[in-house]
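User: What would this chain look like folded?
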Amino acid sequence: MDDGVGVAGALDGLTDVAGLRVGHARVPGDGALSGTTVVLAPEGGAVAAVDVRGGGPGTRETDALDPRNLVQRVEAVVLTGGSAFGLDAASGVMGWMEERGRGVRVGAGPTQVVPVVPAACLFDLGRGGDWRARPDAATGRAAVEAAAATRPGTAVECGSVGAGTGAVVGGLRGGVGTASTVLEGSGVTVAALVVANGVGSPVDPATGVLYGAYGDAHFAAEGGAGRLAYPEPEVHAAASVRLAEARERSGMPPMNTTLVVVGTDADLTRAQAQKVAGTAHDGIARAVRPVHLLNDGDTVFTLATGARRLTEGRDPLALNAVLAASADVVARAIVRAVLAADAVSGPGGDFPSYRGLYGPLPGMNWRTRARH
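Assistant: Here's the prediction, encoded as structure tokens.
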């Protein structure tokens, strides 16, 4: 059985899973701070599943992913800002799919299909100042067109983009992050794309270290015997004061949600894909504390392309390697999202960035985000 140990993929991102592509679109306008991200599967779709654990979810077509139900594969997953209003972005993706005959076939004609496009939303209303500036069908269509226009193996753009445009996590600017690993033995790729927008904080209040970086060699200090670099105490103290002041000025109630897509090229059943989605929530819990609150809508999707056999034998425990890796890449992707985010301050609130508060930590291998 594979022990789950692996190395990062070539891009260290979701698009290391061959066939998966990612596109972002932003809501236009000076008072807008929201957008949509689409994960596009290969034509013919991918086995999909979902696990929702937040107490305030906003979702669409997630019941269709229940392994007991009809739909076997989906062509895309939509992650969007705009709270429940933003779920309209999925309509634009559906229209794009219908024009290309991609979906559940219900008739003989080339476009007689019903595209099943699962979606989940996060709360970012008013963060740019305009409460009514939120994604719609046009935003969703722009995001799927952006995904379709990328070449296979294109690196995922991270930070304050797409569904992460207005993301805030623990008062800090959040955003999109990604990570991947290739499992030893099986060669299976497991990757994640996250939109970090939680009520909880990604920062350890005792040290200023990002929770998800603890114990992860990808964030170890160069030349420091693999140890994580800690902020200087005076830097952390000043950052804590600045963040508290920003939260007070923003004044908005903490309405959030972290969204995740875990992708893999493993040949998973729908039930196995659902188990992966459930275990991947552990990665959110490692990187954001507290998590899964009533005002979070934390949702994890799995997309499995099936290009690679998980095991040549009948080992029922072979899935364990994918389960363990899914949590690992989610935690790392959340760290990347926070590191890549840019500060913003305006009529909708004051949201500092982690980098703006702490700067580059001495010895920290910050090049881990340079490729995104």
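The CA atoms of residues 92 and 137 lie 4 Å apart. If you want, I can go into more detail on any region.
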